[in-house]
Design a protein that fits this description.
The structure is a homodimer. Chain A is of the alpha/beta class. Helices cover about 45% and strands about 10% of the residues of chain A. Chain A has helices at about 15-30, 45-50, 50-60, 70-75, 80-100, 125-135, 160-170, 190-205, 210, 230-240, 245-250, 265-270, 300-310, 315-330, 330-340, and strands at about 5-10, 65-70, 105-110, 140, 175, 220, 255, 280, 290, 295-300. In chain A, the strands form two sheets. In chain A, strands 1-2-3-4-5-6-7-8 form an eight-stranded parallel beta sheet. Chain A has a two-stranded antiparallel ribbon with strand order 9-10. In chain A, helix 6 (about 125-135) packs parallel to helix 7, helix 12 (about 265-270) crosses helix 13 and helix 14 packs across helix 15. Chains A and B meet through helix 8, helix 10 and helix 12 of A and helix 8, helix 10 and helix 12 of B.
Chain lengths: ~350, ~350
Amino acid sequence: MIIDIHGHYTTEPAALHAFRDKQLAGLADAARRPASSDLGISDEVLVKSVAPQLKFQKERGGDLTIFSPRAGGMAHHVGSEAISQQWSRVCNDLIHRICSLLPDNFVGAGQLPQFPGVSPKNCIPELERIVNELGFVGVNLNPDPAGGYWTDPPLTDRHWYPLYEKLCELDVPAMIHVSSSCNPNFHHTGAHYINGDTTAFMQLIQGDLFKDFPTLRLVIPHGGGAVPFHWGRYRGLAQDMGRPPLAEHLLSNVFFDTCVYHLPGIELMAKVIPLDNILFASEMVGAVKGVDPHTGHHYDDTRRYVDQVKAWSAEDRHKIFEGNARRVYPRLDSLLRKRTS
Amino acid sequence: MIIDIHGHYTTEPAALHAFRDKQLAGLADAARRPASSDLGISDEVLVKSVAPQLKFQKERGGDLTIFSPRAGGMAHHVGSEAISQQWSRVCNDLIHRICSLLPDNFVGAGQLPQFPGVSPKNCIPELERIVNELGFVGVNLNPDPAGGYWTDPPLTDRHWYPLYEKLCELDVPAMIHVSSSCNPNFHHTGAHYINGDTTAFMQLIQGDLFKDFPTLRLVIPHGGGAVPFHWGRYRGLAQDMGRPPLAEHLLSNVFFDTCVYHLPGIELMAKVIPLDNILFASEMVGAVKGVDPHTGHHYDDTRRYVDQVKAWSAEDRHKIFEGNARRVYPRLDSLLRKRTS
């Protein structure tokens, strides 16, 4: 089967946006706060809203997408911690409903109620709820809840440890994924996302996080940002800094997805990133929506690139499409085993 | 000939560091200010200080390096604008002395006295001095003088226009190069540099800078950050945003160097970046100093990678090693023509 580990709900019904407007308007004028977090969205509207994802999944031969709220929509820097708490619940609940309505197509990953300067410990109740009650198999962790100003500590700081403890206890991986940028220097999908990936990896090189959390698993999306392209630089920096070789230091715990929107990029990944660390993903319908005039196919139809890499055997591709995802997301594996047993 | 367009003076004599300490100590205690900006460094000490660069240049078959002050040392965020002015003059003067002592090996590129929140217009006198008086052929422009907090406007903002006007008038390219990071999230050479490159390119996609400055030339170092690896993403984002194709929109004005420290990275560049936009560079002695145990050669011996790319002919390699540099740095070309005439 083909598992896409990185899909966001980017086709939300208007009612969700209307709720968010009311919620944020309520910061300025309490009278405008939404009366309820029941959005009044019918199952029919929900199913219809993911028609684009279902269409692409079918056309591209995908089976199952790990589906989470719109990454740019998390906007942890906006409002207050209470706003983030309420917004995360609402967004996660919608994902849960979609996954319950279309269990063959979607499995949930969650948004955490982070807020800049606030301990990630406060996210634990929502993390437990989405995993234990909603059956989510993963979660997105924003390394920069300040939205482009990077005012919280690096991922290797003890600030984040309570969350890592809980992730290990629950056996759930985190995708390190920033949200929108309120810094005009950073276009969100064109700079902030890619910078977030690159930054996270370098923080992990500098630190010793996996000595403290040997079972923690982190997925770096968008092919790992700049990391595979600069693999020699990262190997060399680790070496100059007296860190262990990257394979030993990080690659039992750090994984990369295939959200790289051209064949040469995926071919590069095939050359430098060990096979066990590559997980199939497309992030559709996401950052890039168009059709590449050079190929006549959507830029984000990443399956085509994976299929074209000559160095990969059918067995290799099976790992990328399914095996690695089931290993990195054990709760997904359990779910799939239950279904087929 | 082989021109390395990206070398920094990372082997400065102790006297330069002592001066900097006094200069910054003077912020807290005026009595500690350096009495003079004459560092008392002899020509002999200067020549000796660049022995490592000369050795590598010779061993690797390089001829000439465009040499600028240590990028991390610019530290525009430190102190005050006056500190930055004084520090830039001192650093540029040292580069000038080295280039005068070893004119066959080094040609100068300068550091600008930027300071966060201050108009780049204030850098024009130093820019004119280094080009007109010191004979420098290029300059480093820091897109984030705040050192990892990105509080100044994007490069496409009119904030920067006075500097671009002067660069065009002088016919001098700018390398977009951040300095050290005072944000603990960003390792300077492992995250901040690469993020700076990626960020700058995306800003240029969003803007229309080269409509206003059709002759401005910007060099994005470190292979363009994440850009070649995500070339499909950038092509697709430009397309989704209704921008012209990248070749038309940016590639008459934006160039990438080859500071990518492994063969697969350079091979990727060869696949996606037009030949006319690639300039040879190694940034030695710089970010990565070690020897790659996989090859037995220094990571930053980038000539070996360029030589190994099968897709490039001898003529192509000539462009990368020399032709493109002479086109992008016309004052270098004039200098070399004068020497051989």
